[in-house]
Design brief:
heterodimer; A: mainly beta; six-stranded mixed β-sheet; four-stranded antiparallel β-sheet; 12 strands; B: about 110 residues
Amino acid sequence: GDSVTQMEGPVTLSEEAFLTINCTYTATGYPSLFWYVQYPGEGLQLLLKATKADDKGSNKGFEATYRKETTSFHLEKGSVQVSDSAVYFCALEGSYIPTFGRGTSLIVHP
Amino acid sequence: DAGVIQSPRHEVTEMGQEVTLRCKPISGHNSLFWYRQTMMRGLELLIYFNNNVPIDDSGMPEDRFSAKMPNASFSTLKIQPSEPRDSAVYFCASNVAGETYEQYFGPGTRLTVT
């Protein structure tokens, strides 16, 4: 079946550092790929998405590129802020029911 | 749009009691999902409805859990009897199946069973 593997956290960075959170997936067909963010005490919200190979999703300075050859969708940001501290979930959806990764906690210090 | 609405936001109950969690999806969405989130198990899909019909309930832990969707604007998740291991945050999410696939999550209900 489908699966998503994320790097384990927490990831701890200083403000303005470069962020990479790795995500790889296993799926049949050509799923859509997503990154969701969950702030403390809230539900998940969509951060960005890509629907086909080589697409780049971007939002709020975050980017991720759909790499079919490496089955990856790594999340990057050039300069993180304290307000980016949250849990980030990689997900795929190929047949109406999504598959989520375990989530990666990001902690950004001033 | 008000987004997905869940109630209550917090629920504390004693073991053995019945618990009912409620969800109102976004108007116009035809798919609804119930999830459970714990530190140990992460985010688990419990049940998925499409056009008010349960399509996949393979994630429902056991017979103590049941879910209904009597109409397009309301769903319930019931636990009877509740146990301490049911303590978790329960999320409801909705979307339009076959369109963008992205899910819209509610704020969650934090359930504590003592």
